[in-house]
Amino acid sequence: MFFFLGRNLQVSMVSLAPVIRRNSNLSCLKTAGCRNLLFEQGEVQSTSGTKYGRFLQEITSTCYLEDVEMGWAFCPVQVDDLIPSFSKVRRMTVGLGTTLPENILHALPEICPFLESLVLRFQVISDRVVRNLLESSTNLQVLCLQYCLGSLTSFSFQTMAPALRILRLQWVTPWITNDDLTILTQNCNLVELWLSGCKLLDSSSQEIISSGWPNLACLQLEECGQITLDGVNSILDCKALEEVLLRHTGRGIGRTIITDAIRELPLLRKLALDLCDASEGGYDTPNVPEGKMMRSVRMSRCKKSAAAGRSCFGEAPPSSSNPKPVQHRETVVLEWSSRQLTTTVVEERL
């Protein structure tokens, strides 16, 4: 049985216990973002009482979960109590509201020996945790670290991870350099790479990515230094790319990027760009894409500050010492069907 709880549902752990008891084959439980799961008649209940005790007992004695998402609903629950039901977990997401202590994170390869996908958001992580995951979780194919805290360094990724295929490092590794990228290409064979906030990268990073992972199907780079300052020639060498996102990566992308990408990347379906990165102020848009696979192009536009001289990259004028974050005004979405091109303007960044 697959069991999913959406956001803001008026349901409590007390009411879930009998449901779980009647479905002993429950394999998927997703409660991330479901804050009301902890409430009973407007008050937060103690997990030590018999009510939540029944819920935990049903989870641990009845279920062998394979897919689990934890968020606010589990913030007062001792994760140790749930360990018996995690022995068959293959996919795990831990988000805001649940904090796994370091000893549990370090022991995940033993707690979940079949773990294939791990997403950690807003968790406290360390080299010890990440390196042990890569070394000991032999089935791990997907690792996503998003907005995590802790003392992560390049030592985390200086180990072989032959099974890893998807790596997303979003706002957790600002220290990554070209040398670190090179080590990553030697240690894992990726088909999907997301990097955000890696401000030390430059145009040479493109060659490292394209030569190290020539079979990439998805590449997303955001706020990554000056990777596209000299164009995107090396990115176009990754012929297997199906999805590409480039956002605030250097003002060097030419006007013909969309046509070039469609021509050079025969499998490309989705392309997302930011006008901040345009070397000539914008991009040419073809009415009919040459390729058969292209379905959508998104072009985001930033809102410039009223202060004179403020650029889309968030650079303040010389007289200002406190630059403000970039605000995104809108996104132009181009969508191709089998018959026509549709253009839509959405007043937010997509």
From TrEMBL:
InterPro entries: F-box_LRR-repeat, LRR_dom_sf
Taxonomy, superkingdom: Eukaryota
Any GO CC annotation of this UniProt entry: cytoplasm
Xref: SUPFAM superfamilies: RNI-like
UniProt cross-references to PANTHER family, sorted A to Z: BTB_POZ DOMAIN-CONTAINING PROTEIN FBL11 ISOFORM X4, MITOCHONDRIAL ATP SYNTHASE COUPLING FACTOR B
Record-given protein name: Uncharacterized protein
Organism field: Triticum turgidum subsp. durum
Phylogenetic classification of the source organism: Eukaryota, Viridiplantae, Streptophyta, Embryophyta, Tracheophyta
